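Q: Sequence in, structure out?
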Amino acid sequence: MLKNLDPALNADVLHALRSMGHGDTLVISDTNFPSDAIARQTTLGKLLRIDNVSAARAVKAVLSVLPLDTPLQPSAGRMEIMGAPTEIPGVQQEVQAEIDRAEGKPAPMYGIERFAFYEEAKKAYCVITTGETRFYGCFLFTKGVIPPENA
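A: Exactly. Output:
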């Protein structure tokens, strides 16, 4: 264990998050997402795991160390439900609450059509799969910056 780090963050995930640069994206996915196949096409090229936790719990852990990009561009996306793109299922509501908590204000997610999500995921830096079993528990996050203390 390390002080001040969420215990859900394992060494492989921490290394990937630290290696990412401003504007890089990462996927946090449910158990139904083709995580391994997609992960092989990402920059990292291998699948990362935060097992046995919900998507919201994994997002909470990741956002405890990862800055989201500025509000000038969308920084948190969700996979849209096919045939009901504006519907927000419980798993996405829970993740939205974690995003808002991490940001200290409302930071609405944008929707990404299911097949477009797969294509965007292939361009990501990495994919982190979770133990989430509910459908549409798939999210895309863009890394922001941490400004200097005197900025």
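The helical segments are 11-19, 35-39, 55-63, 90-103, 114-122.
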